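Lab channel / #folding
Pinned by the channel admin:
"Please post every new chain as: sequence first, then the structure tokens as a reply. Keep commentary short and put observations after the output so the thread stays searchable."

First post following the new format, from NK:
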Amino acid sequence: MSRHLSAEVDEVRFISEDHFILTLIPADAINHPLPGQFFLLRKDSCGDDPLLRRPFSVLDYNNGKLRFFIRITGRGTAAISRSAKGDKIDILGPLGNPFPPPSEGERAVIVAGGVGIASVFPLLKRESQKGVLLYGARTARAVYLLTEIEETGIDVRVSTDDGSMGYKGGVLDLFRDYLDEGGDGVVYSCGPELMIQGLAGIMKDRGINGYLSLEERMACGIGACLGCVKEVGGRKRRVCVEGPVFNISEF
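Reply from TO:
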């Protein structure tokens, strides 16, 4: 069950010019977020600009602290990035449908692009024994959180568009190669819209089961405002409550 409450900023740590990790300490107990769920955040001191909270996937929740991996895209995220230790953040969550666990004996094939790594990050420890992560970025400089990813022990395979790290090409090419080499499993993915559309096409063509998380702007987080409605498989869906995680059968 989601809760609306205040949280205190513990740390803002930049890992690039426009990407940072935000660590929050909620003022009261929250339900433990499941992999793929998200929170809506807004800095209390912002007044009415921006008015609405912003959605962010949970990187992890340990020892009473929530962590989020955030890319600065506008006024709201810029304001959060300027937070100092002790500042207050308005939070609502956890929200949304999570990634379900694979069936017994089934391998998790985790496909991530860009900041979509945040949504699937909680899966890495859970699936570290037999899972594989296919992580795509434009360049080596855009491969974020790699040290933390490697510390989970999962099999990591990186692709970069320019070949500056790992496989040269897009993550969808890496995924095709993985399949062509006999790899299988249930897919878990989050990333840019074009990546998700392309991945869904490959999965449907090859009869692969899996779950795709959609990135979308949101306002209320409870399905009332219809601000996050997106067409999924020819049907209008409210991403905040019917997603953000959808089974491939729904595409």
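NK: The mean pLDDT is 92.
TO: also worth noting, Residues 108-250 form a domain with the Rossmann fold fold (CATH 3.40.50.80).
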